[in-house]
Structure to design on (219 residues):
């Protein structure tokens, strides 16, 4: 079993001494909502970020009894590399060979300890948090028609057409202006108002209207 931290540049920090144990903490997010007169209620709000923690040390001298390899890093150099991973604020890959652990993490913190009886060795506690990319959905603004763009460029804003669409009537066989006025306007005496609006289409004789003719009706 080997423990590796690989930074964003591909540099591998291979831990020379395996930790005695690794703690992986998982939590379910809980959102507490207070409802007036009813009190507080807990609702699940998704899985929280996993936290991985372990402790070990960087020895100053290779010892075949507990070191994984001979060419071990100088303890201060190794700790500086971990500090740089924290400062870079970029995800790094954490691998424990022989296990399913192969994840992107952020190095969230570490604690170092120097012991008087073991000069040169650096003990540490390391905390990692699994990294999850934030996905943000952006709303694409609708394109303005060319006419609206030109108006906006000239400092003019188009106003909506609030004019009501006039009501029309299609003449049927046997219709007269009086019959249409009675049926559509409630009084046959209003035939003249229909004629005045459609005089150009009807002509000089209001008694002659053709089937299929479209008449504009008074408001």
């Amino acid at each position: 079993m080997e423990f590796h931290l690989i930074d964003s540049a591909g540099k591998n920090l291979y831990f020379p001494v395996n930790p005695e144990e690794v703690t992986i903490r998982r939590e379910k997010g809980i959102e507490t909502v207070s409802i007036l007169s009813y009190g507080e209620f807990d609702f699940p709000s998704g899985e929280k970020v996993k936290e991985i923690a372990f402790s070990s040390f960087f020895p100053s001298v290779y010892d075949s009894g507990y070191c994984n390899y001979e060419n071990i890093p100088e303890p201060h150099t190794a700790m500086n590399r971990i500090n740089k991973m924290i400062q870079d604020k970029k995800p790094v890959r954490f691998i424990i060979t022989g296990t399913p652990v192969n994840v992107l993490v952020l190095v969230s913190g570490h604690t170092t300890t120097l012991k008087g009886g073991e000069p040169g060795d650096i003990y540490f506690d390391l905390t990692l948090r699994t990294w999850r990319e934030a996905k943000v959905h952006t709303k694409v603004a609708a394109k303005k028609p060319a006419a609206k763009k030109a108006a906006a460029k000239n400092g003019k804003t188009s106003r909506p057409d609030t004019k009501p669409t006039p009501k029309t009537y299609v003449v049927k066989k046997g219709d007269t202006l009086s019959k249409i006025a009675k049926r559509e306007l409630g009084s046959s005496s209003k035939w003249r108002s229909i004629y005045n609006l459609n005089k150009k289409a009807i002509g000089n004789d209001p008694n002659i209207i053709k089937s299929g003719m479209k008449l504009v009706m008074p408001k």
Observations:
- Residues 75-88 form the longest helix (14 residues).
- Residues 21 and 54 are 6 Å apart (CA to CA).
